[in-house]
Amino acid sequence: MIRAMHDEDSPTEMPSDAHAPQQQRNWAELARKIKAWGQELGFADVGIAGLDVSAATPGFLRWLELGRHGGMDYMARNVDLRCRPELLLTGVRSVISVSLPYWQQEREAERALTDRETTALLTPGSIATISRYARGRDYHKSLRRRLQKLAERLRGEIEQDASGSDAEVIRRTFAARAFADSAPVLEVEFSRLAGIGWRGKHTLSLTKQGSWRFLGELYTTLPLPQDAPVAEHCGRCQRCLDGCPTGAIVAPYEVDARRCISYLTIELHGPIPPEFRPLVGSRIYGCDDCQAVCPWNRFARIGDADFAVRHDLDAAPLSALFAWSADDFETRLAGSPIRRIGHERWLRNIAVALGNAESTPDILAALASRANDDSALVREHVAWAQAQHAARRAPCRPSGEQQ
């Protein structure tokens, strides 16, 4: 599953002298406190990584060379920032990696789908499927706010016993910068190095409590002791590869974003390629199939209340969502990550899902209501959807009959 990146966050403070000596202290004890504070802030796991991401760099560069990032040009523009952490924070010496669970209890119908090891209906129905991470509040703000609180707690701790010249050194050298899927960071690699998850075959960070977790990082200039990477536990399992509707997981640990439904419904700005439209099913924002089929997600725990479902987005009729005006979209999705795709792409995605749904009167009426939409992009996808329904309603001709 592809999740989007936003603009870079600002550092808590930039050091004027990154190479000044650090105050002498028990760094292992400070690391223990950091993890305890993280737990208090709601993080499921907190680990500390070093800066060496060289193990992940070749795979990332190959992914770019093969063009598998599609239209996500920012991935190619920010290679140096992603592979050289010191470019995001001068004097950085440690990375605190955290995870925040977001999975919420499913409704009975959705639980039955998960039990069948799919999140999309085998015959798409009239209910929209929205990726679980996007059904509640925007995780960027919630996660970043907690990371900033962790940074403030850390600054207060190291300044507490400092005095005189020590205090001045700390003021000049300490810096921390929080990231929540908001800057060029190899977050899955840092989670691996910090020992809070391994890289699953679907390329997401995975734990023995599953993968329904957001990742965040706090870059810091403190020389904190590093945790040991966690061992992988995917074994010979390939359920995520087999369960991907579009075959986007082209090999273990390799995703071609151009085929990924999350990319197609979130990152792609233009038309969704016609060959993928029938495979989109009822998914109108993102796709969770590779995670839903993962055996480790059977052990997922209820996530943070910040991400509880809003506006019934786990059971909303496609026709009702398609009727939203631009003002409805902006108002009802305020504080939601969905809002970033804009009303036009929202309608584009729903039009495709309507085309895959059963030919019921409300579905056909919804499509007809936007057949002359102001947006050429929406009109094109509505026309495709209407053609799908027309083809299904057309009587079958006997074999050999002239067309």
From TrEMBL:
Keywords, ordered alphabetically: 4Fe-4S, Cobalamin, Cobalt, Cytoplasm, Iron, Iron-sulfur, Metal-binding, Oxidoreductase, Queuosine biosynthesis, tRNA processing
Protein origin, superkingdom: Bacteria
Protein localization: Cytoplasm
Subunit structure comment from the entry: Monomer.
Record bears the keyword tRNA processing: yes
Pathway(s) where this gene product acts: tRNA modification; tRNA-queuosine biosynthesis
Organism: Rhodocyclus gracilis
Molecular-function annotations in GO: epoxyqueuosine reductase activity
EC top class named in words: oxidoreductase
Record's protein name: Epoxyqueuosine reductase
Lineage: Bacteria, Pseudomonadati, Pseudomonadota, Betaproteobacteria, Rhodocyclales
Enzyme Commission numbers on file: 1.17.99.6
Family: Belongs to the QueG family.
Residues at which [4Fe-4S] cluster 1 binds: 234, 237, 240, 294
Active site feature: 181
Binding site for cob(II)alamin: 82, 181, 215, 262, 287-288
Chief site of localization: cytoplasm
Free-text remark on how the cofactor is bound: Binds 2 [4Fe-4S] clusters per monomer.
Catalytic activity, as annotated: epoxyqueuosine(34) in tRNA + AH2 = queuosine(34) in tRNA + A + H2O
InterPro entries: 4Fe4S_Fe-S-bd, 4Fe4S_Fe_S_CS, QueG, QueG_DUF1730
Domain 4Fe-4S ferredoxin-type: residue ranges: 225-254
